[in-house]
Amino acid sequence: MRLPKRQLAVLESASATDERTVEEIAAETGLKPATVTGAAFDLRDDGLVAVDERTAETLELTDEGRRYVDDGLPETRLYRAALDAGAVDEPVPMGAVIGRAELDGPEVDIALSNFPRKGFGAIDSGELTADPDADVDADPEAAVLAALAAGEDATTADDADLSAVADEATVGRLVDRGLVERASSTTRSITLTDDGVDALMTGVEAAETVSELTPELLASGEWRDVEFAAYNVEADAPAIEGGRKHVLRETADRVKDVLVGMGFQEMEGPHADSDFWINDCLFMPQDHPARTHWDRFALDVDPMEAIPDELIRRVEAAHRDGWGIDGDGYHSPWSEEFAREVALRGHTTSLSMRYLSGIAGAELEPPQRYFSVEKVYRNDTLDPTHLLEFFQIEGWVMAEDLSVRDLMGTFEEFYRQFGIEGIRFKPHYNPYTEPSFELFGEHPETGEEIEIGNSGIFREEVTGPLGVDCDVMAWGLALERLAMLTTGAEDIRDLHGTLADIEFLRNAEVTY
Ligand code: PHE
User: Fold this and answer.
1) What confidence score (pLDDT) does residue 507 get?
2) Residue 429 Cα, ligand 1 centroid: separation in angstroms?
3) Tell me: the pLDDT tens digits for 201-226?
4) Model pTM?
5) How many helices (H) and strands (E) does the chain have?
6) 375's torsion region: left (phi>0), alpha (psi -120 to 50) or beta?
7) Phi, psi (degrees; rounded to nearest 5) at 181
8) How far apart are the C-alpha atoms of 311 and 463, rounded to whole Å?
9) Whose CA is nearest to atom 4 of ligand 1?
10) What distance in Å separates the CA atoms of residue 5 and residue 206, rounded to the nearest whole number?
């Protein structure tokens, strides 16, 4: 039998009676552990060795944990300082003890919360008393930290006798305190099978194997005689955690692909825009609550000059006196000054207005389809389903005759591309659309129906002043909510921001 050199080395180093770990074999053969693992899998596939895998949980000190091994836990330092300050006999002001313990920054709070928890003493009305019987040297948390540190310095894992000191509750508390991290490691052990023993007894020759074809091999013609190492695509390789596109950005890109595939063109325009484009064109009365400082991020900048005068007059007329045969308008005050004020857009429908008005240079001969996937800003209260900035999937379709069926069919087709079925529609009110619908989708984890968008067919009071004389259906969908449905995230803040779990960001898949 002929085997590649590294496989032969592993085979010869393995034993039929003792399990030997990859690391032991690596040390003996001088091969890298990853090479030994690869060779072992190849040998296993040929039935010559058995590979046993065991996954064990290991504990590792964090930087903060390591620091406390050297300096002492903050609560222990507080206790020692309290003894020095005479806090056994009578309560001593907290500030004095903290100063003496040389605690600073976050260590103060850490010390103050753990000191009473561990029964080192009591804190009452700003004064501290130390319990003379507390035995800080017997603190189980400190013992586990010390044992882990000893293990790091030790040459073999057995030198750190962790099992003697670590009970699960103590370890759990250290993990919660961020002093210890859990990790898991896989140990692979190799034993010779009967076939492996037979092969060795009959004799195995080393075949010269080549893992890479080089120019030298080609030039010399040697490639004809060598044996090439086979790829083993199933062998474990170290995980490389490089950068990747954020799951939300990936979802946005996917949304763009889907909409382009459905025949839409992309719109672009300013994040900071005049109230005219954000609200007035949308027949939003100037005293509408969404237009107050409660909801809107107003900007202290010059008013917007470049708005076509003719259009301002038409929009003003729609607000004051109405538009169309049945239009009655609001008969409420309307100020051009307010219309020119600049704010962060609360929706990207401002872009739809710019495009439908013709000033963005869009083609306006029906049928037309336009979209954007852009950021909007709202002065909302942060909660599991609301952010102050989020991405809106804006879109509109212009055609001679549109109905609610077209609107619903478009959404069903769009969401189906992400594997989302069973979208539900709820009648709604917008000043700018009639009829209007909110969209709901079922959350894959909680089963709850969450709002994913808002839509409708623009009123004549919107399309008329813009100079559009056919139907326009439009919508604003929340990208983050779509991502919640596709990733199963239950809190919008799991998707981005400080609460987002790095493992989730590394592994989240964009489904479609
Ligand atoms: N502007 C609406 C929102 O932000 C979405 C929408 C756009 C609704 C266009 C109808 C028509 O909720």
Assistant:
1) 87
2) 10
3) 999 988 777 888 899 999 999 888 88
4) 0.64
5) 20, 19
6) beta
7) -120, 145
8) 12
9) 347
10) 5
